[in-house]
User: Fold these one by one.
Assistant:
Number 1:
Amino acid sequence: MSKRPYVLASAAMSLDGFLDDTSDERLLLSSAEDFARVDQVRAGADAILVGANTIRADNPGLRSRSGPDPVKVTLTVSGKLDAGTKFFTTGDAAKLVYAASAAVPSLASQLGGLATVVDAGDPPDLHRILADLADRGVGRLMVEGGSAIHTLFFAEDVVDELHLVIAPFFVGEPDAPRFVGAGPFPQGRMTLVETRQLGDVVFARYLAGQAVVDHRRLGEAVALADRCPPSSTFRVGAVITDADDNVLATGYSGETDPHDHAEEAALAKLGADSRLAGATIYSSLEPCSERASRPVTCTRHILDAGIPRVVFAWREPDVFVHAQGAELLRAAGREVVEIPDLAAAVRRANRHLPGLAEE
Ligand SMILES: NC(=O)C1=CN([C@@H]2O[C@H](COP(=O)(O)OP(=O)(O)OC[C@H]3O[C@@H](n4cnc5c(N)ncnc54)[C@H](OP(=O)(O)O)[C@@H]3O)[C@@H](O)[C@H]2O)C=CC1
Ligand SMILES: Nc1c(N[C@@H]2O[C@H](COP(=O)(O)O)[C@@H](O)[C@H]2O)[nH]c(=O)[nH]c1=O
């Protein structure tokens, strides 16, 4: 299977499962508190995707007040997109339009320098689109809909996480867009990991497939950092699993020597091991890309060990160096998954570091 970003689908629906009504006005389903949450989720995404019909219907800006704007992405078969819509005219982030082959030439000339138009095949191939996004450095993709797009993503079984909001009213119009239409959806139960009341709406967060395993193993890596001896550097935990999710080794910073990094301590227990070719390394912190204590970085150790998959919680902040572990690993073709939900706990475990005392 080709590499793809972590996909987070986000939708707000009515009690009867509609994303909108049939009026020309955009229907607000979220509460003010929920719109603030969505804004933060956007800030944590590398890119945000909506279907061409949502651009035509809502003219969304797709920006974030809480952080950097994500790259904007859309999909179209018809190529009917208006260069004057906010998707193209607002924000400095890159805009990507994945279009059916036949629509590419006219769209490219119509949009000029406003967006990059990418040939998505004929018919467009979602897996090709996701692989291209991964190649462009998109590790975390937020999919905001609408109905056809959610249906496509769930039917292709590429959703790792779902944020579903239920607003306390009915729409009751048969022609309004539903959260999803009919489709060959994955049949297993998703894992409910969080529910919250936000004003008058219910927010529910679900994980699916590999994301369930990744959150559990990354949680174990985060907990392992509690074993680190007192230190003036990062306190980190790491777990290495094989292709069947069996634990091969664990490690934590300072485990046998004050200079040990967690990933290094775990890898040192394995040596050359053929199981590493299908392994995942979970680390509470982004693997280091520069270090003073020893000559070989954890990014280099992971590359040399041949581990194809890296999952981490917290991007290394600029305390000692400007880290680039995630970028270097991605550039070397490794799959890198960032799970920021667990980052706050890792940050708390590192409050002893300069500049990190305050939340
Ligand atoms: N409440 C909420 O959370 C949200 C609500 N909405 C609502 O959803 C509605 C829009 O949903 P919907 O009408 O289903 O439209 P979508 O936004 O899902 O866009 C569908 C369009 O995407 C393009 N497309 C679909 N499948 C593919 C494919 N395989 N490859 C390439 N392009 C593809 C086509 O564009 P083209 O026609 O150009 O070929 C298609 O018409 C609006 O009313 C909006 O307000 C939207 C987002 C969130
Ligand atoms: N109506 C609705 C949502 N609609 C989504 O938000 C987009 C508008 O984005 P922007 O213009 O940037 O604010 C819109 O096109 C659609 O994707 N989202 C939600 O979480 N809750 C809601 O009730």
Number 2:
Amino acid sequence: MGANLTQSLIDAQDHPFVLIDEEYRLVAANLAYRRVYGLDEHADVVGRHCYEVSHRLDRPCHLNGEDCPHRQVFATGETHEVLHTHYDARGQAEQVRIRGHAIRGIDGQLWLGESIERLATPEAHGCEGRMIGFSPRYLRMLQQLGQSAASQAGVLLQGESGVGKELAARFIHHRSPRAEGPLVTVDCTTLNGNLFEAELFGHERGAFTGSVGRRPGLFEQADKGTLFLDEVGELPLELQAKLLRVLETGEFRRVGGRNLLHADVRVVAATNRDLRQRVDEGSFREDLYYRLACIVVSLPALRERREDIPALADALLNQLCREHGRPCYMTREAVDCLICYDFPGNIRELKNVLQRAVALSPDGVIDAGQIDLDVSRERRAVSEAPSAEGSRGAPLQRVESRYIAELLAHHDGHRRRVAEALGVSERTLYRKLRRYGLG
Ligand SMILES: Nc1ncnc2c1ncn2[C@@H]1O[C@H](COP(=O)(O)OP(=O)(O)OP(=O)(O)O)[C@@H](O)[C@H]1O
């Protein structure tokens, strides 16, 4: 095949496409690749290193902790798909999905053919609903989410409060074959014995005092879609057996109903607890755990991917500017403050910090002075983290309960403000209030 024909064939592709040799050197690049990465249409790109053009690195990306399709394809000859962060012609980071194929020449020589799909950039879509993060750790997690979306198996999302578990559940649903179906959220912290069946399975007219009309339950509403069981670790033991039964058979009866109904539901669950440990302690059923946790995806805390803080802060700030209808920008010192902080409340706390900063800034310039971090909370979180020397001082829950009581007093019992100050959702706060008898 002539060089001109090869070039025309790859130029006909809309996605950036590039051929790379074993030494990471470009052999050919199509027009879309040149355009996206700022290479002149007529410039000779042959011989340049792929990592230098798209990653802005001076060494192969696997040395940077990334999963490199180059290494996989040359080692196994098999197609390999990964998510990576690339830098476009303006130096903007963006998430891309790379499919690396083994391409053989007439003389048997092996090349890597990379087809690059650009996932939407945050600024193109606003950050509402976008999962922002470019660090290798975050991209690995996104890749796991993407792979789990294709399967029907139960997925358990685990991570601290505010890391984005609910967003991750949406991500899975919208990329799954059930995307056209409903996504129904069940808040397991609100389900008690009496409510459980009526909420989950619905009820018939007059099934119990006060039940007006027939109402389908959440399980039925999720038919052909995804049921998101949020805070599943909070479900009392006696309800876990009922949940397991319906998940195994897909069959249920509405309260007060005779007919056995069926719903086709895929389950994604989330927890900020160590569910495996709860199984070992006997407070979570092992059979239910295995039903829910066919695939376990751990979402990293924000402090475990600090390199993502500037991009996240930028996107969240843009969103706030749109809401407030005025431009704002952060100084380098303000961003440095954010990067150094541990964010026990993760992205939700980052959002709150930025919200306060926007409100405090008279002229839209956010300097370190407007970054009001709850350093005492951070210190507490660090000192309360389990230490190798054993637990010192008051147990975590006693300290937390006292702290929440103080906040309630300080905010005159205003729960939304207390949740904001804690950097948790109102739902999480209600759970804690119930647990500590403060409600
Ligand atoms: N990667 C991300 N990019 C942008 N925004 C994010 C990202 N992850 C989370 N957020 C935002 O952070 C906030 C908290 O996320 P979410 O409610 O999904 O967390 P969670 O882990 O479910 O918290 P909780 O356990 O307290 O319910 C939301 O406003 C969400 O939109």
Number 3:
Amino acid sequence: MLLPTLAAICILTTLAWFYLAPFSPERTSPPRVPSLFPWLGCSPWYILNPCAFLARCHQRYGPVFKVLLGGWEIVVVSSGDVISSIFSADPRHLCNDLMHHEMFHVVAGVRTNYARLHDIMIHKLFPLVDKSLSRRSLGQTTQPFARVLFSQVKKFTQNHGLRAVSLMQLVQEPLYIATNVALFGSSFPLDTYKDFHSLDKSVPYRFSRLPFWYWPSSCARERLLAQIRDYLQRGEVADCDDRFALALMETFKANDIQGLDGSRLVLTFLWGLHSNTMNTLFWLLAFLLADPDALARVRAEIDTAVEGREGKFTGLEMLLASDPDELDDPCFAILTSAVMETMRLTALHAAVRKAECDFDLKQGDTTIPIKKGEYVLGNVRAAHMDETIYPCAHEFVVDRFAGRPYRKGQIQTNGKPFLSLGGGRHICKGRWLAIYEIKVVAIILLRLFDISPSPEKSAVWSLPRVSEHSIGVIHTQDEVSVQLRLRQHEYSG
Ligand code: HEM
């Protein structure tokens, strides 16, 4: 009894201290968040709710502050310009190996051989992703994507016509399967969505080393690794159009990556490929369903484009057969803006880097000194919630990014600091794929269905709660059920 009581007293005292003490930050530049514990620093509060902790510190100490978390001195920055300069910094000065290491460990359980896997990922896999998923060549890589996606969504019309379905599964499973076919070919283990989802749900807890019932997700990970290993061992690529899969197999062969190492590398990549995109897509639908006017505007735009009223497409089938470049079009200006707005609202923190030497970050006319061995972290959420840049920053404003003339071939930021997709040399290599995929899923679902809250739950739609332990982009643990009703138009099942 003594130990738990002491622990409870300790936690309550420190919580009270954190909330009530009249904080006077140490007179350092940047200000340092005071902490009671010598090595742990503020990690108990950070781990309990990273987002709320950073928001409180931002409010108290301003846009730049230093905090000790589990032995790491971290300089947190919240201004768009400074975060951009971290993204663009020379990796010899600010290095992001740490995040990659964590991803390998947390997602795929890598404990040995890290350096070799990391080397292949950075020097072989990322350039391959960059080339295959660039705006110009995306159409060759995604050829079967929309076809497979459509056939997966159609299954919901057959099996779930009148029943409640999980919004998460509705938006994510077809996307997962179609993306895997497009990138890895149809011989990839496609019936793995449930295991992937179970692993994905555990990742934020694994990152924070929080107590969690890990057993189901660990079993899911083992099954995924075994199936991916079989896929790599077979080495079959069904179709020579599967360019990405062919190049991947060749890269693995040339570098003698096989067995468990190969499957761990692919699983880590698979998580990077799906996790943010799936969660962003879920929130796009959730925001639209919570805002009937926004939903009506996006749907009207889709109907106009699909019905060929402005001469763009003559039906859903034609739209789905088009090159991704065709969807990067002013006829989808509001939908594109809705995707950008969702990315703005869902991005958390990024740009975690370790300083390899003493380094100055520029902030306007001043500099932020970073010492060798310190870490920097970009509080993207704070930058995106800056009311001076984004009025009504906490609200979903569907046309926020549709104010200026549409610029094809560019991310539609409307000239505002937009950090959800990184920047500089580490800009997200899958950004064109992610935007294209999210748009296609939204087009298919909103064209085919009226989606309403499941009557067993509530007649009024409210946004799902944000999980305190989200990473990358916000997550939810809420089960959201919806009912689908086929709309009356060209498609009848
Ligand atoms: C909505 C979906 C996505 C979001 C919000 C997102 C976000 C990001 C961010 C913020 C970074 C920069 C991280 C940093 O520098 O610290 C990044 C990097 C990266 N992303 Fe994405 N991403 C998404 C989808 C994808 C997809 C579909 C792929 C496809 C494989 C992908 C592949 C990559 C790669 C390879 C990098 C590392 C680039 C490098 O370090 O050179 N991402 N992503």
